[in-house]
Amino acid sequence: MVEAREYSHLQTKKLSLLAIRRLLRLILRIVIFSTLLLLGTTRTQNNDTLTNTSMPDKRSLREEDNDREYWVAEPYNFPSFDNNTAKNVSTQLGQTAFLHCIVENLGDKTVSWIRRKDFHVLTVGTDKYISDDRFQTVRTGNDNDWVLQIKFTQLKDQGIYECQVSTDPKISVFVNLSVLVAEATISGGPKIIVEKGSSIELTCVISNSSAPPIFVFWYHNNRMINYDSTRGDISVEKAASKTVISKLYIKDIGEEESGNYTCGPSNAGPTSVSVVISNGENPAAMQHDGNSAPLNGVQTRTSWLWNLLLYLSLINYVTR
Questions:
Q1: Cα angle 40-46-47, degrees, rounded to a multiple of 5
Q2: Burial of residue 312 (number of CB atoms within 10 Å: 0-12, 13-18, 19+)
Q3: How do residues 223-248 score in pLDDT, each as one tens digit?
C-alpha cells in the first residue's frame, strides 16, 4: 500500500511538471509572436513615413510653395554718364559759365568736380572745397544733373574740368571751358570817303561773342547818337553763333556828318573809323584818323559804363 501511494505521488508530480513546461512554452510563443508583430507594425509605419517624406503629393507641395515667401535680389545698375551732355562750353569774359554733368543710377555714390590743370578738387556733392566763391555745384530741375557754376569768368578759368563719380574703379567725364574775349571792328576802316548827299551804312562786327552784348553805343566824335533820330537808324542783329552785327545808317549825309564814328559794345573794347565827306574832287577839311583824340574820349566813356555794369553785378551778387 505504501509503495502504491508513493508511486501515485510521483506520477502526480511528473504531470504537474509537464503541465508547467507546456504552459511556459505557450507563454514564450505568445511573447515571441507579439514581439514579431510589434516589430512588423513599426517597420511599416517607418516605411510610410519615409515614403511621405521623400515623395510628397503635388497638392501639399503647391500649398507649401504658396505659403513660402521668397526674396528676389534686384539687379544692380552701374552709374553712367549721359553722352548727350555738352563736352565743350564757351562763355564770355566776366559772364557765368555752367558745366553740366548728368549721372544716371548714381545710388549712394558722390559726384566731384576737379580742375584738371592743377588737380584741385572744387566740389564734392554740393560741398565746396575751394576758397574762391565763384565756384559752386548747383542743382537744377533734373535731379541727375550736377552743374558746376563759375561766376565772373576770367581767362585763367579756361581749361578742362573733370566730373568724377566715386565708383570702384572711378569713372569720369571731361568738359572743356573756353572764355571768349569779344572784339569789335568796323568794316571799311580806318578811313571812309563818302560823297556829299549820299547815304552811308557803317557796320560794326562783334566777334567771339557767346551772347549778344547788353548794349551797343554809337558815337559821332564825343557825342552818343543812339537816341538822336536826326543822325540815322541803328540796328543790332545776330549774324552767326558767336558774331553780332550793329549797323548805323545815315542818309543824305552832309559836311556836318564828317568826323570820327565809334562803335562801343558792352562786351568788347570800342573801335572807330574816320568818315570824310567828299565835295566833288576835294574832300572836306575835317578829316580824322581812326586813332584820333575823340576815340580816346569815347573809349574812356564806354569803359566807364562797362565797369559800372560789372560793379552793379558784383553788388547784386554780394547782397543776394
A1: 90
A2: exposed
A3: 898 887 666 688 888 877 789 999 99
